[in-house]
Inverse folding.
């Protein structure tokens, strides 16, 4: 797996990362969602540089200009509900992409720290020989992404897989490196060193789904 850790290089991305982490700023849900969306836009812009392109011609009011267009057939799959703002950010740029949605959540039996990832909804087109983009804002343990990959197996084998994440843990990144094909690319804004006993990233930013849409029961 190729890991692209974008926060290592200073850019406007770091401002958006700072704001989604800030306990005061993140209370503005609309701003939080928009920052996640903007981070998604930056990540997929960088991702786009690795796609396949063809030369084409465009007719302007004053002539003809040769240009380049990407030719990958893209399927964008987001993990609900936290992945929805990130999904929109990617879709802002890859507006012709096919879309898939999957519901995956952590189930803590009896409130214990140990958990299992439950997948109970999936709507997806074929991904056979296409470019699959998986969007999940928080890459904590990596188990959710592993389960999503397994759930997509009946839909075909992707030619290329890209994972887009906002914040990850070192442990989660290492975990998916062993679970995904070697030619997978991970595009991630920032990586933190630790996760706690319940599998949340430290210092992280909290629960991305709750911050976007409100606390769940």
């Amino acid at each position: 797996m190729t890991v692209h850790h974008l926060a290592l290089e200073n850019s406007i991305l770091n401002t958006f990362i700072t704001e989604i982490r800030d306990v005061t700023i993140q209370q503005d849900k609309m701003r939080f969602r928009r920052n996640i969306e903007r981070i998604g836009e930056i990540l997929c812009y960088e991702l786009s540089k690795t796609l396949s392109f063809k030369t084409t011609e465009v007719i302007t009011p004053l002539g003809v200009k040769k240009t380049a267009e990407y030719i990958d057939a893209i399927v964008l799959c987001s993990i609900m509900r936290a992945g929805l703002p990130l999904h929109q950010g990617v879709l802002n740029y890859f507006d012709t992409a096919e879309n898939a949605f999957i519901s995956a959540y952590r189930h803590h039996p009896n409130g214990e720290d140990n958990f299992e990832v439950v997948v109970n909804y999936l709507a997806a087109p074929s991904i056979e020989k296409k470019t699959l983009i998986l969007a999940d804002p928080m890459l904590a343990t990596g188990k959710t992404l592993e389960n999503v990959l397994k759930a997509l197996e009946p839909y075909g084998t992707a030619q290329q897989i890209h994972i887009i994440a906002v914040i990850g843990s070192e442990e989660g990144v290492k975990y998916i490196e062993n679970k995904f094909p070697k030619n997978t690319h991970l595009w991630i804004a920032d990586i933190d060193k630790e996760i706690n006993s319940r599998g949340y990233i430290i210092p992280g930013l909290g629960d991305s789904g709750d911050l976007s849409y409100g606390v769940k029961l």
